[in-house]
Design a protein that fits this description.
The chain has helices at residues 3-25, 53-71, 97-107, 134-146, 151-159, 198-207, 224-230, 235-241; strands spanning 35-42, 45-50, 82-89, 94-95, 111-122, 125-131, 169-177, 180-189, 194-195, 215-217, 257-259, 269-281, 285-294, 298-302, 307-318, 321-334, 339-346, 366-369, 372-375, 382-385, 388-391, 398-400, 405-413, 417-425, 428-438, 447-448, 453-457, 468-474, 477-479. Helix 2 (53-71) packs across helix 3 and helix 4 packs across helix 6 (198-207). Strand 23 (405-413) and strand 24 form a beta hairpin. The chain contains eight helices and 29 strands. It has five domains: 1-25; 31-108, no CATH class; 117-165 and 176-259, Membrane-bound Lytic Murein Transglycosylase D, Chain A (Roll); 269-345, Resuscitation-promoting factor rpfb fold; 348-484, Glucose Permease (Domain IIA) (Distorted Sandwich). The chain is an alpha+beta fold.
Length: 493
C-alpha cells in the first residue's frame, strides 16, 4: 500500500470516529444533512432548540388540564409570550421537550383570569388579594359586615325598609368600609395564593388568616352561643370559622372539635346609627334647715322621683367597638322631682358637765402630746402646746364634734392646715386642726350635734404626721380639753 492510500484511510477513520461520538452524545453540532428544528422564545429571548414542538405542547396541554381541574376553570393560559419558530439548520444544540418545558415553567408561570383586590390602608400601606371570582369577595365582605351588624337589621337597611323611630329604637344611617378597596380584572399566576371560595375569604377578612387559630372540644350540652362567648366571639364570627355548623341553633355533640380564634379583621366595618333611648335621670337631695327645730330633728318634706329624658344620639362603631357617641337632642319625658329634707338648725348651746363630752376620734387611739409645755417636734424648741395631739386611728378616719354647737369658722391655713371651729355657747369653742377634709355638709352657720362626723383626720399644715390637734377655748383662752373628760386617755398623764 502506498503512502497516499494509507493517509486517506487514517483521515476517514478520524471523521468516522468524530461522527459516532457526536451522535452518541445526543448533540448535533455538525451535520452533513439539514435538520428541521424549532427554536423556543419567551419574552423575545431564545430558550433553546427542540426537535418536536408537538411533544412540548402536549406537556403544556397536560399541565393546563391539571390546573383547570384544580381551579375549576375553562381556561388556563400558558405564558402569553411563548413562541416557536421552525428552522432548517445544519448545526445546533437540541434539547428534549421535557427539559424545555421545565425551563418555561421556571421562567414564566401559567396564568388564569381572576381579580386583584387591593385594600388601601394609607398611601404607603396596602394589601393585595388574588381572587378567582369577584362574587366570592362580595360574599366574604358581606359575611364580615354581618359579623358586626344584626342580619335582620342589615337586610332592612339594604332594602330601604327600616321602620321610622316613633319613640325609642335605632336605625342604621350608613354602613361602609373605611379602607379604599379597588378591584381589577387580571391574569393571576398559578403560583400565587389564589382565593377560590368565599369561606376562606371570609376567614381571612375576619381573622387575618385562613388557618384555624385554635380549637375547642365540645362538652356535652354546650351551645354555639356559649362557646362563642367563652372565646370572646359573637355567633356570626363563630359560624364563619365553622362553615359546617349552619346556625346558632345547630346541636353540638360531646367531643366535637370546633374552631375558635380571636378576631383580627383586615378591613374596618364602620356602622353609623341614629339611636333614641329613654334614660332615667336620678333625683337629687335638697337639704333645708329650720332654725326652729332642734339639731338632730330630720323629716322629708318632699319625696324624690327620678325623671326620664328621651335622648337622641349619633353613634359610630368600628368592628363592633363604639368609637363615637354624639348627643343630638334631649327631650324631658318625665321631670325630675328632687327630694327635700328638712333638718333642725337650732343648736343646744350647752357645753355639758365634765364627762358629758364626746371623744373627738375613734378609739383606741394614741395620745402623742398633751396640753402644756413640750419640745417642739419640728424645730426642737421648748414651746407651749395648748392642745391634745391624738393619732393612731389612721389617715381619713372620722373626727367627731365634741359637743353640740354651730360651725363658727372653717377653712385652711398654712400652720393649721384644714381646720374647723365649733361654737358651743356659754363661751366655749372647740378647734380641730390638720384635717384631711370636711364632711360635705359642713359650712359656716351649720348646726351640729354632739358626736356628729364633721371632718376626717389628716396631716395638713404644720404637721409631722397624721393626727388631730384638738383644742378647747373658753372665753378666748385655751384650756386643757382633758378637764371635760373622764377617760383612760386623759387619766394616764
Amino acid at each position: 500500500m502506498n503512502n497516499r492510500i494509507f493517509y486517506r484511510l487514517i483521515v476517514f477513520g478520524v471523521i468516522l470516529s468524530s461522527l459516532v461520538f457526536i451522535l452518541g452524545t445526543g448533540r448535533k453540532d455538525l451535520s452533513d444533512q439539514p435538520m428541521t428544528v424549532y427554536e423556543v422564545y419567551l419574552n423575545g429571548e431564545s430558550l433553546g432548540i427542540i426537535e418536536n414542538e408537538n411533544k412540548l405542547y402536549d406537556l403544556i396541554d397536560k399541565e393546563q388540564d391539571l390546573l383547570k381541574k384544580k381551579y375549576g376553570v375553562d381556561k388556563i393560559y400558558a405564558p402569553l409570550s411563548l413562541e416557536t419558530t421552525k428552522l432548517v439548520t445544519y448545526t445546533g444544540e437540541v434539547e428534549t421537550p421535557s427539559s424545555m418545558y421545565d425551563k418555561i415553567k421556571d421562567t414564566e408561570p401559567f396564568t388564569l383570569k381572576g381579580y386583584e383586590i387591593t385594600i388601601n390602608y394609607s398611601e404607603d400601606k396596602q394589601e393585595v388579594l388574588k381572587v378567582l371570582n369577584k362574587k366570592d369577595f362580595d360574599v366574604a365582605l358581606e359575611n364580615t359586615i354581618k359579623a358586626f351588624v344584626n342580619e335582620e337589621d342589615y337586610q332592612k337597611y339594604l332594602e330601604g325598609k327600616q321602620s321610622k323611630i316613633t319613640k325609642t329604637g335605632s336605625t342604621i344611617k350608613d354602613i361602609n368600609i373605611r379602607e379604599n378597596i379597588t378591584i381589577k380584572e387580571s391574569y393571576l399566576s398559578t403560583e400565587d395564593n389564589i382565593f377560590t371560595n368565599s369561606t376562606d375569604l371570609s376567614k381571612y377578612l375576619l381573622f387575618g388568616t385562613t388557618k384555624t387559630q385554635g380549637t375547642h372540644i365540645v362538652i356535652g350540652g354546650q351551645t354555639v352561643k356559649e362557646i362563642a362567648e367563652e372565646y370572646e366571639l359573637n355567633t356570626k364570627e363563630f359560624l364563619i370559622v365553622n362553615p359546617s355548623i349552619l346556625s346558632e341553633n345547630t346541636l353540638l355533640y360531646s367531643g366535637q372539635e370546633v374552631n375558635v380564634g380571636l378576631i383580627k379583621p383586615i378591613v374596618s366595618v364602620v356602622v353609623e346609627n341614629n339611636l333614641i333611648e329613654d334614660k332615667e335621670v336620678s333625683y337629687k337631695r335638697d337639704i333645708k334647715y329650720d332654725n326652729k327645730l332642734v339639731v338632730g330633728t330630720t323629716y322629708t318634706e318632699q319625696q324624690g322621683q327620678n325623671g326620664v329624658s328621651r335622648v337622641e344620639y349619633y353613634t359610630e362603631t368600628i368592628n363592633g367597638t363604639i368609637t363615637k357617641v354624639i348627643p343630638i337632642n334631649n327631650e324631658v319625658i318625665t321631670p325630675v322631682v328632687n327630694e327635700v329634707v328638712v333638718k333642725g338648725g337650732l343648736a343646744i348651746n350647752y357645753y355639758g358637765e365634765t364627762g358629758d363630752w364626746a371623744w373627738p376620734t375613734l378609739t383606741p387611739c394614741v395620745m402623742t402630746s398633751y396640753f402644756g409645755w413640750r419640745t417642739d417636734p419640728i424645730d426642737g424648741s421648748r414651746s407651749y402646746h395648748p392642745a391634745l395631739d391624738i393619732s393612731g386611728t389612721g389617715h381619713g378616719s372620722p373626727i367627731y364634734a365634741a359637743q353640740s354647737g354651730t360651725v363658727w369658722k372653717m377653712g385652711r391655713a398654712s400652720d393649721m392646715g384644714n381646720y374647723i371651729y365649733i361654737d358651743h355657747g356659754k363661751g366655749y369653742k372647740t378647734l380641730y386642726m390638720h384635717l384631711s377634709g370636711f364632711n360635705d355638709e359642713m359650712r359656716v352657720g351649720y348646726a351640729v350635734s354632739k358626736g356628729q362626723v364633721i371632718a376626717y383626720m389628716g396631716t395638713t399644715g404644720r404637721s409631722t404626721g397624721t393626727h388631730l390637734d384638738f383644742r378647747l377655748i373658753y372665753e378666748g383662752t385655751y384650756i386643757d380639753p382633758c378637764t371635760m373628760y373622764k377617760n383612760a386617755y386623759c387619766g394616764t398623764r
